[in-house]
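Hi, here's the filled form for the chain we discussed.

Project: internal
Contact: R.S.
Residues: 91
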Amino acid sequence: MLAALSSHAAPAPPPQGIELAIVPYLPARILLEHYKPLRVHLERSLRRPVTLFTAPDYQTFIARTQRREYSFVVTVAHAARLAELEAGYVP
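And the returned structure, exactly as it came back:
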């Protein structure tokens, strides 16, 4: 199960664009291809550029999430709960 979280309390995206980080459960190339339709949809509907990110490994992704380096994250349920409780992300 994946969960999406935002580091923003309000739903308004940052003016310069949206950063969407995805937990690295597959190689980066495959993740970026799988999430391309979502990226395109968000860009069209929000009229803002969307950049997809991931990390080289799970531990790095979790550490970056805890440091709030990402605007929005798509992650696994237990990591989403930690991001919510410890880093202030909003489901």
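Let me know if anything looks off before we file it.
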